[in-house]
User: What shape does this take?
Amino acid sequence: MRIKTFIGILAAGAALLLAVAAPAQTIKIGVINTYSGPFATLGDLIDKGFKLYMKQNADKLPPGVKIELVIRDDGGPNPDKAKQLLQELIVRDRIQFLTGVVFTPNALAMAPLTQEAKLPFFIMNAGTSVITERSPYIARFSFTLWQSSYPLGAWASRKYKRAYIAVSDFAPGHDSEAGFERGFTEGGGRIVGKVRIPLANPDFVPFMQRVKDAKPEVLMAFTPAGRQATQIMKAYGDLGLDKAGIKFIGPGDITTDEELPNMGDAPLGVITMHHYSAAATRPANKAFIAAWKKEYGEKSVPSFMSVGGWDAMDAIYYAIREQKGKIDPDRTMALVKKYKNPNSPRGPIAIDPETRDIIQNEYIREVKRVGGQLANVEFETISMVKDPWKEYQKK
Ligand code: PHB
Assistant: This one.
């Protein structure tokens, strides 16, 4: 007995020595995100999303594995800057994962580097369909504009015959326009006018006047979430398009949850298609909202971008866990193709193994007043939508 105990103590001591001597393994995750400039609120919402995930799931990493975040600010849609930042992260910091990225032009500029460096890039936002085709090391945890705009077009074609399209003049805007037009015209609707609005410092008033003069039944618009969503909503209300009987619809970017409190009454009745609403009553979302408010304050509201940050970080943790902390880029990409989460705050999600793009529910929502505050209230679900643009490419 005594000898056994003695041996047991020796073994425990040796294990302890080994554990102390073995260097803790540190995995470096590069984050390129928008923390300054007119779109800084978007980067902040993503940042809060993935950091909340990390805080809540610290115990889900293998023992001895630590994460070091290397965070850089791209300042908005600046592809040259984003590319330069990534070069430094690859060469100097030797990151093992890349994540973040609000803007499509930045993601497109970085894509070739992720292929050369074999660097897994888990996108938290940028939503233009083609991005994932630009490098085999990209997987997307956000959405595509086609994923919302195409089914929105189909839905709208059952209610309206004449639509006007207004989008921000950059890649995700062009995707939103094309997706909506396809869905709407396939369903028998007609596009009576289209306009593309500059991305930098737009004045929405003259564009809204043009829409009003064209007298469509419905206006479908896309701008980036954040302040521009509030600006276009205000222009719609101020010019009286609602009173002129022109219904306002779009992907959920135009009624993004965090901006609803800044929009006045203009968005009441606006219909959007999207994958996430902070007002959703799924248990996983209720838990997410409660954790968010505890961490960031009762008044703080997460957006779809925060959930993109949360889910992409969950996939990074999964890849680290499955490899027990020894990261190989090709193994990471093989694993991510099998990634599924039945319980994201947005509902069930999966990565399409063929395209590395996200499959998720799209919800039709109406802006209503709930408990004194505006909310995106989901009223219909389209189950597990794959990026329709990629489905069309296959045909
Ligand atoms: C994008 O650049 O892909 C993008 C930016 C803001 C959005 C949606 C997409 O709200």
About this structure: The radius of gyration is 23 Å. The chain has twelve helices and 14 strands. Residues 102-104, 126-128, 172, 224-225, 253 surround P-hydroxybenzoic acid (CB under 6 Å). The chain has a mean pLDDT of 95.
